[in-house]
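haha ok so turns out i had the wrong file open the whole time. this is the CORRECT one, sorry everyone. sequence first:
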Amino acid sequence: MTQILDLLADVMSRYGLITAFAIVGITVWVSYQLSARLTRGKLHGSAIAIMLGLLAAYVGGVVTGGSRGIADLEVLAGIGLMGGGMLRDFAIIATAFGVDTRELARAGAAGVISLFTGVFVSFAIGATVAYAFGYTDPVSMTTIGGGAATYIVGPVTGAAIGASSDVIALSIAAGLIKSMLVMAGTPFVAPFIGLNNPRSAMIYGGLMGTTSGVAGGLAATDERLVPYGAMTATFYTGLGALLGPSVIFLFIRAIMG
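then structure:
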């Protein structure tokens, strides 16, 4: 038995990236099963998967005493590559190429306004919270503000303006928390805000911006609304990644001096 386990560990270590995809796939499958059986879809599987990932990262850090979470375990080192900058940047580029600007016109002026409003308000809230916790330099405030937009905009912004790895990690954490809150909260607020048609879903996606959160929340509300909300949320990510390191950073730097 020991030899079999040693052989398995050796194979997992050698093919780390394949192992990472397998572990993530199993985690997602388990998460969707828990969502269906325990919450009847009210808490989306993506939200549960994110929480399990954060829990695994914490346990891995405690067990190994390292700084890369569960990726510090040799057999799971491939998760560090899978979750690193390479695939992150690939996902951003793939998202951008999947956008058709003609589709945004379907949401009308309200959709465009919601996009800009959502991006600027998220950055403002994130930067304000960062300042309140002692991150008073423009680079940190802008990066954490980007994280309040989405967990993709945060690291993209931080990498572009030279933020430290600790600040970028905080921006990702802020984005993940926002994503989970949107996933879990959307079904409950939907009846009160008229979130029951494609137009309102587009506006909602533009205001919230986190594609995974909006898609998960709308899936638990009405699956037919997912494509509409996810479409403007995708635009939101691209818009935030463009404005964050440029216009918004310059604005915050002008204010802070």
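Residues 226-256 form the longest helix (31 residues).
again sry for the mixup
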